[in-house]
Design goal:
This protein is mainly alpha-helical and 70 residues long. It contains two helices and no strands.
Length: 70
């Protein structure tokens, strides 16, 4: 026998979700992890390009000094 009080005490999370809502709730944490990892990889790639560019500039300056010595 259900009373009005027990029906009011139901957990609001027990309500039915649409398929789209259920998929979103299920996949959201994974998608956030993927997005975070992609951002991390992009940052690492930028740092690598900066390092390579810096190395090329240093090499060019050294070459310039070597060939311009009199």
């Amino acid at each position: 026998m259900k009373t009005g009080l027990s029906e009011e005490a139901e957990d609001p999370l027990d309500e039915k979700l649409t398929y789209s809502e259920a998929i979103t709730i299920t996949l959201a944490p994974t998608l956030l992890k993927i997005d975070s990892k992609l951002e991390e990889m992009e940052a690492e790639n930028r740092m690598e390009r900066i390092h390579q560019s810096s190395h090329k500039i240093e090499k060019s300056i050294y070459t310039f000094h070597v060939f311009t010595r009199v």
